[in-house]
Structures are given as structure tokens and as C-alpha cells.
Amino acid sequence: MKRLLFFSLLCLVVVGTRAQTSQTPTPQWRPTYHFTPLKYWTNDPNGLIYVNGVFNLYNQQNPYENKWGHMSWGHATSTDLVHWTHLPIAMYESIQGGDTIWRFSGCAVMDRHNTSGFCKGDSCIVAIYTAHQPDLHRESQFVAYSNDHGMHFTNYDHNPVIDLKMQQFRDPNVRWNSELGKWLMVVAMPLEHQVRFYASANLKNWDLLSAFGPAGIESPGVWECPSFFELPVQGEPGVHKWVLMASFGSRGKTRMQYFVGDFDGKNFINDNPADTTLLVDYGNSFYAAIPWNHLPKGQNIYIGWMVPPPQETSPWRGQMSIPRDLVLRKTAYGIRLFQQPASLIEKALPQLSGHHFATKTGISLEGSREGMVPESITNGNSYWIEASLSAGPGVVAGFNLAEKWDSHHNLVQWTQISYDPSRRVIIVDRSHSGTARLREGDSILTM
Q1: Fewer beta carbons under 10 A from the terminal one: N or C of the chain?
Q2: Residues classed as catalytic
Q3: What are the start-end ranges of the E strands in 178-221?
């Protein structure tokens, strides 16, 4: 029986890499579709909020150097998720009480009804984030507010709003919960492999509801950057499920997992056994992803940090993933998360490509090789590929990306994507780095 595989894939192809110093400009490696800061280090996306047709992306940023440190909140905006306007740093690190306060990861919300008492008009944005104090060995949750559309933030005089006097307690993510009639926070207990749920009527006084975890991945590491949101189940009218995401960092490896279940106003009830592991992405560089707050109804878009590769770039270091649309679907394995590059980006493809497209259909390989992309459109370093594969039992069909050949015409480096219908797995083989096997419906690559 033939099976079809449909997916969209965006790849960044880098050829001829070499050792770089952090001062060597690398404009050839500046990606087309991925957000990058103008200069210096970036990591986690923060405070994602959609306001009046504009996507605001705050991000962990070092304003002084091209390496991790001096954590502050950078700021950029976009209307199409491809072209970004870079704005001044929104929140710098500071000194308070004899200790440095780094502005670690967090979120931002529109307080339209002034529940916090901070607002002076209709442009009020409230940020909830982790204050990291390295000398005190403490992480606590702070609140800051902006009355100029998120350009500048003022810290609340009575911070912290939650302080467990712990060294690791971070990354709050907050949304309004209409059933509770309150703000709902999920925040990570990294070493405990847990998240905690808190509720507040005013964004300042928080009550503990419950905790969830450990569950999913079982190995040494930490839970970070959780998010919690409700999605409809596609094709199942009236059925909604809650999705809890948590990043997992362990010995230099980064992964993201998710849980699907229900929320009764206090507790999250996992649909699956505690030892079930559902990965958001099978790539090795996707981390700390969170969704945008206050999107129009029916839109569910999120973005993650792509952990930098060994090659150094300059004057920036670090980039975000392709923003992705999220849906839930019922499968033979249960309700699972599906994702595609955001539809807004697809709308920008003709302009980004200069209207250069290549289409091939009805190709019958039968063990042979055929070039897929004409040389006339391979002058850049970014390509958008949409593919549909059909293969009979016992046949594996696929294609290679970023092939590199030596002087003797031997293929020495490539990324292979193929589909084996007999085992119902997608196979991603990254040229000698091992093979990852995925079930149908799982994410394929970090984008």
C-alpha cells in the first residue's frame, strides 16, 4: 500500500565553513527567515505579545558582548514574522541591594482592564520575568510595566512577587484564564523536574494552585521555560485540550517535551502515563519555545531559540527558529501536536525568493538519483522545500540536502530525509551524526 508524506521544510545550507573569531564578520551566514539581533548574543525568546497587528519579540540578549552574560531584554517587532524592526534594549540588567539583577526569561501580557493598577491608557503591557541574582544565589519572579507600547519598562516597587528563596526557580509564563477569572502562571522548578501553577487577580499577589511532575524524560537535567495553553482538536468539534510544554537541558543537550491533558482550574491532568515522552522537536537545537500572547482567535503561533552551532558568527550570535503554527490532532497514538511553518511566512515567499520557483512532479526514482533543484536558483543559502513522497512496501524514498563532494567525486557530507512506509517512520540522517526515527505526525526537523 502506498503512503504519502506531506510536510514543509525550511533549510539553511552553509558551505565551506571554517574557523572564525568572534570579530570576523560573517554576513554570508545571516539567515533569511530566522530572527537574529543586529549584534551580540541572544538566546530565549521572551515576552511574546501581539499588539495592534504587530508581533513583539523580546529576547534574552547581552547588550555588550557576543557571548552569554549581562542578561537583558532585547526587543524587535514585525508584521510578517520575517522582516524585523530592531528596537532599543527594553530592560537592562541592574544593580539592586548590592547584587546584580539579570533579567532572565519571562512573558508579557496586555492588562486591558488595569487589574494591576499600573496602567494609564490602552498601551499598558505588563512583563513577568525571573530576576537572577548570582551573588545571592537566588531566582525570584519580578513584575515590570510599560505605558508606551512596550518600549520601556518600570519595575514594580514591591518586587519580588513570588520568592521561594531558591537558587533555581524561573521562567514564568502567564495568560488570562477566563474560567478562573484570573491570571494563570506556569513556572519551572528546574531541579525538581516540575512546574508550578499560580493564580492572581492583579499580577502582583499570587496563590499557589498545584504542581505537575516529574514526568516524561527521565535523565539528569533541568526543566525550563514552560508554557501552558489550550488548543482545539482539529476535526473534533467542541473538543479542546491543554498543552503543557517544558524545555529540558541536560549535559549540553537540549530538548523540548510536551504533555496533553485537561485543566480543572487547579490541577493539570495528563492524558498519558507519566513515563510517556512526547518531544516537540527531534532536532538538537530547538529550545525555550513559547507562544505569542493575545493573538487573534484561531491563531496559535510560537517560536524557539536555535542553540548556536560550533561555527561562530559576527556581529551577532544566536537566532530564533521559524515561527510555527500549532494544532492538535487525534491519531492512533492519542492526541498529538502538529506544527508547520507559520502561514504568514508562506505568504512572504514570493517576495523573499524573487519569484524564483522550481517544481517537479511525477518523478519515478526506482533506485536512481536525480537533481531536484536547478542550479539557476541555488545562489543563496536558504531554501523552502515542499515535498510529497509515495513509496510502496519495502521501498524507502527520500532526498538529500546540502550535499558535499570530495575531489574524487565521493559524497562525504549530506542530510538525508526519507520515508519508510513499511515501518511508518520518517528517517532523518545527518551525515554520520546518527539516525533519528520518527513516527508519522512527529516533528521532522528544527526549522
Answers
A1: N
A2: 44
A3: 182-189, 194-200, 207-212
